[in-house]
Each structure stands twice: as C-alpha cells, then as structure tokens.
Amino acid sequence: MASPLRMTVWTRAVECLVLAAAVCFSLGATNASSRFNNLDHRLMCTCGCNEVLGECATIGCSSRGPEMAELTAQIASGKTDQQILAWFAAKYGMTVLAAPPAHGFDLVAWIAPFAVFGAALLGTILLLHRWADLPGGKTPAPTEAAALAPAERERLEKIRRETGSEEGF
Description:
By secondary structure, the chain is mostly helical. It folds into four domains: 1-30; 31-99, Cytochrome C biogenesis protein (Helicase, Ruva Protein, domain 3, Orthogonal Bundle), CATH 1.10.8; 106-136; 139-169. The chain contains six helices and no strands.
C-alpha cells in the first residue's frame, strides 16, 4: 500500500499535468466564430452609420451583408487577422479600420489626444501660477490691514461699509 505522502505527490503531479494541458489547448483554441466576432468588431461598416461592422443596425444596410460575406471568405481562406485587416484597408481605405494602426504617421492619432491633454494641463498650471504671482492678486487679510498705508486702510473701510461686510474680504 502506498504512503499518504506518495499519493499526494502523484495527485499533485497529475493535477499539474491536467492544468498544463488545459492551458496549452486553450491558448491554441481559436474557433471561426470567436475569430469572426473579434474581426467584425475591428472593422467599420462602410454604409456611413459610423458603427462597427458587427453592430451595424441601419435598416436596409447595403454594405453589411457583402462585407460580412467577404470577412467569412477571408477567414475561410486561412489568412491571419493582420492580413485580413490589411485586405479590407486596401479595398475600402483606412477608414474601414475601427482603430488606426499604431505605427508610422498613424501613431499620431494615438499620441495626439494625450499630448493635447498634457499641454492643456501644463498650460493651466502655469497660468494659475502666473495669476498667483501678479501684484494685487491677493487680498490682504484683516490682520495685514494694520500694516497698510492710511489711504489704503480708508479705502478698505469704505468698501466694508458700502458692502456691509463685517468679516473682511
């Protein structure tokens, strides 16, 4: 009879092998329908609805049917996803791609929104610092009023009386 420790080791080894086999098979598993769903969401319908091909809901859309048939034919021909996307881009133009490619000049479409946001944020921060440094940008606190010139104190007192502000500014 085998010892409990020995059974545990064999049980763990079998579990690891089953898990490894499951992971290997799931990594290589690509059925046609999941691949089709992936690709039809990476392409735009050319009818002008501005929706992805797989979700075009335009009534009487004359583009969706033929494009879906072309996509099915391209998948059946054994082409890779990149080859299929390149084929659609060559036939319909780059606007058929739901997302621009991330290389070459098209990389600007990915970088520009973040660059504009960063520049606007930096500009706002610099502008706020500049406004804070301007003379007269800060209102003197009531405790600082004693250090002011008599004419300035009189002006502040007049403003306080006219506005009815007892707490200061």
